[in-house]
Write a structure and sequence with these properties.
Length: about 400
Amino acid sequence: MIDLQTQHVVLVRAFLAVTVGILVLFAGKAINQRVGPLRNYNIPEPVTGGLLVAIALWMVYVATGYRVTFELTARDVLLVYFFTTIGLNARVSDLKAGGRPLVLLLTAVAVFLVVQNVAGIATARLFGLPPAVGLLAGSVSMIGGHGTSIAWAPTFASQHNVPNALEIGVLCATAGLVLAGVVGGPVGRYLIEHHGLHGRHDAAQAVGVTYGDAEPQIDYLSFLRAVLAIHVSGVIGILVHQWLTRLGANVPLFLPCLMAGIVLTNIVPRVAPRVLWPTGTPALALIAEITLGVFLAMSLMSMQLWTLAELAGPLCALLGVQVVLAILFAVFLAFPILGRDYDAAVICSGLIGFGLGPTPTAIANMTALTQRYGASPVAFLVVPLVGAFFGDLLNFAVIHLFLLVV
C-alpha cells in the first residue's frame, strides 16, 4: 500500500489513501468542533483537516527531503458518486424554481470571467510580467482549475512566451482551491447574518443534515435503494460519457452522471410510482456528505505546498487580487443581482468556491452554511450546473477572446 518509488518519493496507494482521507475528515470535524472561529465562520471541515495534513507533509519534506504523494483514482470515483447524488435530488419543482437564478448566475459569471482576466492582466503588467501570465492566474486557473490549466499550458508556452505556463497554472489552481474553501464560508455567513436571512427548514438537505437536528433514521433498505439509484445513474452517465468522447466532446465524467440522476429522478416516480425512489431521503444526503467530505479531504491533503512556497511575489499579488475581486463581486454585484435573499447568499458562497477553485469546494462552502442556517435546494441545483458545465463553456470562449489580444 506504500511504495518507495525513488529515493525521495513515497507513493501511498489508493486503498490507504482513502483510509487516510477518512481520518483527515475526522480530524477536521474534531478541530472545527473545538476551535470556535473555524466553526463560526463556516470553514468546511475537509478544508481544516486537509490543510493540516498538507502542512505536516510539507514539514516532513523540509526536514527529510521525502515527498509523499497519494494515488487518487478512488478520490475521482467519490466525485462521481457525489455529483450523482446532487442530480438524484433535483426535482421538477426545483428545476422550475432554479430557472431564473440559473440565468442570473450565468450572467454574473460571464461578467466575472471578463473582470477576473482584466484584473489579472493589469496586475501582471504592473509587475512587468507578460500579460499571458495574468490570464493564467485569472480564469484559466481560478474558474478553470487544474484541468483547464494543464490543457491550456502548451498553448501559453509555445505561442505566448510563458515557458513555465504549466507550473504557474497548476500552482495558482492549487492556491485557489485553498483560498476558495477559506473565504467562501465567511462571506456567505456575513451576507446571511448582515441581512437577517433564513433558510428553508421544511426542505430536505441535499448534503448531510442541519446542525442541531435529530439524527436521521436510515435503515438497510433505504441506504441500499440510494446506492442502487446512484449506480443506475452512473451506468447511464458512463455510457453517455463514452458516446460524447467518441464525438470529440471533452466533458468530465461526473457531468453526464449528474444529468442522468436529474432525468431519472423526474421520470421514475411518475412512470413507476410504487418504486421507492431515494430523492430527498436521509440516506442519499448521508452518502452525499461522506463522498464530498472524503473527496475534499483527499484533494487538500495531497497538495504539495512546498511548490507554492516557491511562488514569486508577483504571483502572490495576482492571487491576492483575485481573492479580493471575488469577495467584492459576490457581495456587491452577484448578491443584489440574485435577489438579496437566502438562496442568493448561499449561491454567492458557491460562486466564490468555483470562482477561485473547483466546484466541489463550492458545494462544501454551501453545505457548511445550509447545515447551520437551513436548506437551499435552488443553490444546490444551479451552482453545480454553472460551476461544472456552463461556466467551463463560457470560460473556454472568454480565454479564446483574451488570447487574441494578449
